[in-house]
Write a structure and sequence with these properties.
With about 300 residues, this protein is of the alpha+beta class. The protein has two domains: about 120 residues; about 160 residues, Immunoglobulin-like, CATH 2.60.40. About 45% of the residues lie in helices and about 30% in strands. The strands form three sheets. The protein has a five-stranded antiparallel β-sheet. A three-stranded antiparallel β-sheet has the order 1-2-5. Helix 1 runs antiparallel to helix 3 and helix 2 runs antiparallel to helix 3.
Amino acid sequence: MNDKGESSPAQRSAFLALLFFFTVALGAAFRSKIKVSSRRPATSIRNSVSDKEHITSEYPNDSVAGVAELKISSEQMENDRGHKGWYRKWKPYFLLINVLTLAAILWYACLTQRIWKEMHNQVSLMHHQLAGTMGASVSWGAAQIVNDDFTHAPMLVMRIDQTGHAAAPEAHIIGEFQILSLPDLNLLSSIPIHEVFKPLNPGGNGARYPLEGFTRLDERVSTQTKTVTVKVKVGFDNGFGDRVGDQEFCFSYIGVYSFRDERGQIEENTNQTGDFVDCKEFKARMSYLRRQTMQPMSPP
């Protein structure tokens, strides 16, 4: 029953199913009753035999006994014909009721299935809408090369940031970073990255990796002979049980630079530790910067 007191399609289907089986059972019961009544019970046969003997003893004439026996048999046939005639009369109606009930059950079953699918679609849509507006979101934060506080050796620092209203119960960074030579970009070393954060902190999480063979000279474009390329995939749980597919990122490192262009304007890094740019833009941008930094800075 729903809030308005109306029966659901599933309840009506169950009621029609019970009505169908009750009708079938009722028809079977009447049919078996007719078959039983069509057979003469032993008591009726004995009564008929005793009546016949009584008539024969009272009327020794054979013709009278034959008439009495014929009369008894005709009465029994009339009785059997009455029962069978009643069943033959109502049998089509029982059959029609069974067929209509079965058709109604099938119709309500199809209707119930369609309603269930529609409800399932509505629930899924509400789930996606709620997850889209209230779920957690994780994005690539930044990659930087910094100097360690104690050893002053270059370190690769990566960070992912959390946005959205809910907290991500799990996030991961999977991939590798490579150290490549310049300008031919030959592979010098490759280090795997596999970081899993459970849960992700509200301000995001990061990881640090030492850069073997990367020197302070490689932190400036004018003296840079190596670069670092980061290739990672970032995935997370949005807090509603949905796994957000891995987002791919690829960045390459450009050291610190500062020069004056033809218009007399200074071009320099946005920060003092160099920048990671998209891998697709790295070669063209690095070639342009190396040409500019090799030239003496012109006066303003």
